[in-house]
Amino acid sequence: MRQTLLDRSFASLAASGWRVCLGRLAAEEEGVDRERVVGKRAFDYGFDELREHFASQFNESLG
Q: From what superkingdom does this record's organism come (predicted)?
C-alpha cells in the first residue's frame, strides 16, 4: 500500500489514521467485533499518542 502526500507535514496524521484503520481490520481478522472508528472516536484508540510517535519518527514538529 502506498499513499502520496503533497504536504509532508501531514505524514504523522496519515500514518496515525492508517494505524488505527489497520488495527481495526486486524481485530476483525482475529474474530473480534470492533466498531468502525471515524472522526473524534479515533482519539479513544490512542490517535494522539500515535501521532506524537510518528511525528518523532518523521522528525516532524507538532504545532
A: Bacteria
